[in-house]
Model the fold of this input.
Amino acid sequence: MAEPVTTPRTAPRTARTHAPATTGPALLIQLHVFTDCDDVPPVVDAVRGSGLDAAVYENVNDPRGIAVLFATARADDLLDRVRPLLRAAPFRSFTPVPSFTMLGRTYLVGHETDAEEVLLHRPRVRVLSPELRWVVWYPLRRAGIFERLPLDEQRIALREHGTAGAEFAATGLAQDIRLSCHGLDANDNDFVIGILGPELPPLSALVERMRKTIQTSMYLEKLGPFFVGRVLWQAAK
Ligand code: HEM
Done:
């Protein structure tokens, strides 16, 4: 994988929102979904041959469906390396499902002590972890009203969310990858979420658990579509 060229930093918080802006490189993660795939080994060969950090998934909800997830710190890779790969055999004989295409970038919340770990290493390790065999990837959009809440109320909702997520993560049943996709997709989503774990049912239970939080029940306008799959192949970590 191409290494990032500079060290990420957190920019000063702005007076109006106290929201930190991320400068420097982020990891870009993109999911491409295809159907009409009857022969999977050539997919693995092609993706392996690309040398990109990637994972190939079988779509549990489509017996002819596959997906490929790419992770790179260089946006140019998406056009210079991913695009030619997906325009060539074997992908050119499959049917793309663009309504499931997702693209997001890692970002900082603001209290992280090791920005490089959060932005570049941890999400990559999770994408490439053989233990995290099952995945659910989906985009979501916040309700506009969330952005108009006083900061304290935003923090309360997000803290409840973070606590619920952390309790779940502590069981080892699910890990999350959260990506900002502001301005990066066709549908004006705010985030792309990946939840990854050794088994599928706990991932569903995590989504169910999040439904009960203030953040999800009151401040998310829409979620999905949901891609649900199992890892068929991952690049070496
Ligand atoms: C303190 C750490 C965390 C922060 C700051 C955080 C932040 C976020 C953000 C910004 C979103 C987008 C939705 C929104 O906030 O409007 C989100 C969604 C989500 N996060 Fe977290 N998260 C954290 C921990 C976790 C953990 C540990 C898990 C599970 C292992 C998790 C699972 C999810 C899920 C499943 C969603 C999608 C919302 C849903 O399906 O209801 N999060 N998170």
Summary: Residues 109, 140, 142, 158, 161-162, 165-166, 168-169, 174-176, 178, 191, 193, 195, 206-207, 210, 215-216, 219-220, 223 surround protoporphyrin IX containing FE (CB under 6 Å). Residues 151-170 form the longest helix (20 residues).
